[in-house]
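Dear colleagues,

As part of the handover before I leave the project, I'm documenting each prediction I ran so the next person doesn't have to rerun anything. This entry is a single chain, and its sequence is reproduced below.
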Amino acid sequence: MGRPTVTYRELLFSGERAHQFQEKIAPYVHPSMDYKLHPALRGRFEWHPDTSDAHLNGTRLKSRTALKAVPMKVLRKYRKPATPRKRDRFDLQVEGNHTYLVDHVVVHNSPETQPGGRALKFYSSQRLDIRRIETLKEGTEAVGNRVRVKVVKNKVAAPFRQAEFDIEYGTGISSEGCILDLGIEHNIVQKSGSFFSYDGERLGQGRNNSKAYLRENPDKTKEIEAKVYAALGVENGPAVAAVEAPVPPADVVTGAGDIEEQAA
């Protein structure tokens, strides 16, 4: 058959070689795709799986060999502009073109899969959908991502809430970024152009510089954080009351020195 011409995205056969190539693959081309073959080579689909193993993934293999054409209503037809090498191209929009499962793999419109198949989403009590909306950079170097998180399932609280925050490489969720966002939302931190300020004091120019200032000044960060929690109606915020060690009674002997004195 000879060696094809190789380009960056395809293999090109010409003349008789193209006919020989299509003739070899015709038995393996599904009827839904055989329109790409030469008219004389269509309808030759003969591939069938090996049914020696009666079951695979809980499905009888023999049931997969049956092909059934299902008519679909065409909702819209759009003809793409012709190019010198590709003519008569069409986009067909059919009814019911939603995401579905084939052999336990999500196909058509969504390439997303989950470990364990569909069991995980039913077993879990909470499911979070995380999408990157922006790449955080310092100069030309990426240092993190700005993400949007939506609660798509929640059996312990109200679902379908969403939030946006920064995730920094090597650090995790940026608490300083969350404080800035909530401070601006509740008018505790002021933003003018690219400058951030608090109580008349400039925090920095740009979001990264302002977060660095908060990291270097924990007292100022706690002060802003306390006001944010007060604005949210959360008492005491994240502070945890310190538990003091109990003071032993006077008649309880503690320490090696006391034991020696008592023995003497």
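The two ends are 106 Å apart (CA to CA). Residues 124-173 form one domain.

All the best with the project,
I.
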